[in-house]
């Protein structure tokens, strides 16, 4: 059975019918074709699915879509302004903050939240804040460099 839900996604109001058991991650990827948000583990361990809900970072795989009525959801697709990359996206490019790129959207969403929440006062603090975002390629040093560059 589906229930009606109105969501704000990347500044667009979407009226949707959703099964109550569907996660925000599956809604984004499978119903809305917003596949920038990645599924790594699907149980809150990897951070690949990180999005912002009302400006706070959230693992979309642990959030039910129907619970987001009236909230503002931002995904990696919503960060750039037209052709202009978000400064954090540009910094990841500049510092090679990725290798295979699979974890990158989640890394960038967490990195933006890290700055917004004021947790980028030292490299150590950044590493701590970003510890929920795993990268199998081991791009961590360059990710930290990118965040510190945007900070400064
Ligand atoms: Fe959500 Fe891994 S897919 S934390």
Automatic annotation (TrEMBL):
The lineage of its organism: Bacteria, Pseudomonadati, Bacteroidota, Cytophagia, Cytophagales. The chain holds residues 59 to 210 of 213 of the full protein. Keywords: 2Fe-2S, Iron, Iron-sulfur, Metal-binding, Oxidoreductase. One of its GO terms (molecular function) is 2 iron, 2 sulfur cluster binding. This is Xanthine dehydrogenase YagT iron-sulfur-binding subunit. Residues 3-79 form the 2Fe-2S ferredoxin-type domain. The keyword Heme does not apply.
């Amino acid at each position: 059975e589906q229930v009606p839900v109105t969501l704000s996604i990347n500044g667009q109001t979407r009226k949707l019918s959703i099964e109550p058991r569907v996660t925000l991650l599956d809604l984004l990827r499978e119903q809305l074709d917003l596949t920038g948000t990645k599924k790594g583990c699907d149980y809150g361990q990897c951070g690949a699915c990180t999005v912002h809900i009302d400006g706070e970072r959230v693992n979309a795989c642990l959030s039910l879509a129907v619970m987001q009525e009236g909230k503002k959801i931002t995904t990696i697709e919503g960060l750039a302004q037209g052709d202009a990359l978000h400064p954090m996206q540009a910094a990841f490019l500049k510092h090679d903050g990725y290798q295979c790129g699979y974890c990158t959207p989640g890394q960038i969403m967490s990195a933006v939240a890290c700055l917004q929440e004021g947790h980028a006062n030292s490299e150590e603090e950044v590493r701590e804040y970003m510890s929920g975002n795993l990268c199998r390629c081991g791009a961590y040093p360059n990710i930290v460099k990118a965040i510190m560059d945007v900070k400064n």
